[in-house]
Write a structure and sequence with these properties.
This protein has one domain. Helices cover 85% and strands 0% of the residues. Helix 1 packs antiparallel against helix 2. The longest helix is centred in the first third of the chain and has 29 residues. The two termini are 31 Å apart.
Length: 67
Amino acid sequence: MKEEKKRAIAKSISYRIICIISLAIVTYVFTGDLIQMTSIVVVFQTIQTFIYYFHERLWERVQWKHI
């Protein structure tokens, strides 16, 4: 695996961790409940994973024309 791919994977993982932590903090501030916070974070992150997957598939269909 090229260094760029390893870097992209590490960057993606670190970004996802930051997103999960920030969502957990905001959710806890609003709900004050660890069970609700956990449920919301798990559901939201699962949905986000599918949205990202389909977003990537759609972008693969976009034809870029070089000028």
